Amino acid sequence: MARRLPKSERSPSLPPPPPSDQRDAAIQELSKGSELATQLMAQLELIPERELDGRRDDALANVRSLSMSLSSSLYALRSERREHHNCGSSSSSGGAGPAAVTSVSGGGRGGGSGARNKTKRRRGKHGEELTETVFITTTPENDGFHWRKYGEKKILDSEFRKLYYRCGYSDERKCQAKKYVQQENNKHPPEFRVTLTNEHTCNTLFQDQPSSSSTNSQVLDFTKASISSPLMDSHVGATILKKEEEEEVPSIDESSRIMSTIMRNYGAYGDYDESSPQSWNGAGWQ
DNA sequence: GATATTTGACCTCC
DNA sequence: GGAGGTCAAATATC
């Protein structure tokens, strides 16, 4: 695990949220990028394997990873936009309003499959109304928020354990957002069912990058064995690589770096530190 | 020493 | 009573 940030660094004073038009521009460009990645994937599939000296599959895997990263980031940005629209002046209790999740083409895996979301309401532990969003993704870690794991459970009739995360700022900022992740299958890459409950009220998406640290605790870490199955291979989950595995699949890292570059270029959250590439690769995640 | 993760125990709901 | 969700002490990491 990467070095953890001192508490003072992890609790920066909140910078002003980016202007909505800037965020919209980022969303727009990410959408374009996602579409282009899909097109590129289709084009690659049309190229005969022999013409690429057997590297077509590698290229396809890279493009898929890129597409998934783009889609996940789109989802995160869109979620945050809703946050500003819906909760801008509301209390921090979260979960009060419906999470009208924008459907995203997340995943973008071959055949057009990807994140499949649906939003539904359910009752919380104490009867309070909760809104939960469920989607399937191959990159459950790429949503840009800082999640802290608080539990893990073997689920009946499932060979995979369910992982429980809450917002890393649940205490500091009373953010009620939670995330449940459960592997669905042993596909390559495997798909994960991600359940999000409550909206983030912490406004910390991509915000708390330390200016000089080589680490961050911003994003969910799936590098632990807890989420992996014996069948998970190097294609799993784009950025879930441990340090010692990095060299094996550099292409995955590359897609994550591309993603971070996009985010920086649009200044979605201005103080992202370019000098911390490991912020986005497996080694730097938490 | 500070912080995150693990994991068994506990709580609540059905 | 069983299953899912959460808590919190122990442990790991930096």
Would you summarize the structure shown here?
This protein has 286 residues and is of the alpha+beta class. The protein has helices at residues 7-10, 20-46, 56-87, 250-265, and strands at 118-123, 129-137, 147-154, 161-167, 178-183, 192-197.
Blueprint (SSEs and pairs):
Layout: H1 7-10, H2 20-46, H3 56-87, E1 118-123, E2 129-137, E3 147-154, E4 161-167, E5 178-183, E6 192-197, H4 250-265
Helix pairs in contact: 2-3, 3-4
This protein binds a DNA duplex (14 and 14 nucleotides) through strand 3 and strand 4.
List keywords for this structure.
WRKY_dom_sf, flat, sequence-specific DNA binding, DNA-binding, 286 residues, single chain, WRKY_plant, alpha+beta, WRKY domain-containing protein
Give structural notes.
The chain is α+β, with helices and mostly antiparallel strands and 286 residues long. The protein has one domain. Helices cover 28% and strands 15% of the residues. The protein has four helices and six strands; from the N terminus they run H-H-H-E-E-E-E-E-E-H. Strands 1-2-6-5-4-3 form a six-stranded antiparallel β-sheet, with no helix packed on it. Helix 2 runs antiparallel to helix 3. The longest helix has 32 residues. The termini are close together. The structure holds a DNA duplex (14 and 14 nucleotides).
